[in-house]
Amino acid sequence: MIKPFMNQSEDNAYKYFFRTKHIINRVSETDMKTPDFEGEEILVEVKQVDPAEVEGLSNDSTYNALKNNLRDAARKFRAYDPNHAKKHIVVVYSGEIVKDDIYSVWTGEWSPEHRDRIFKGGMLLSGDHKQHIDAIAWFKNETDKAPRHVWAVSEDLKQYFPEMSNE
Length: 167
Prior knowledge:
By secondary structure, this protein is of the alpha/beta class. It is built from 4 helices and 6 strands, in the order H-E-E-E-H-E-H-H-E-E. A 6-stranded mixed beta sheet has the order 1-2-3-4-5-6, sandwiched between helices.
């Protein structure tokens, strides 16, 4: 069965990929976890991250919210595309986080400017989960027409984010 509706974040992500000439379609729901969208070469999972809604072992709900959402996306990608035949992209919408929050959960470093400071290991996304995510695109606001930042494991992923090609 096709997912009956899209929330605002999913609708915005769909429109973004359409504007950038990458057609994606809703993935039919099954009993297994599925990503939100599938294109010819990509799978897309959309996450609305709200740290206030997340509790975890750590006192910092921001990092827990990011890690939990990225881990959930990785699990969906792994279940739906176990051979990793397509590129796996997570689109994150959140006005409650900043660019360095995602960077820290992804790399284990505090920030690009402070790479010597190590991030708490319990908040770091595991290597197993990271291998199932090829790119993370962060939109701060629902009204953003383009991501504020994209983290990608390879340069070829920038084709999906044309406004980022000059970074």
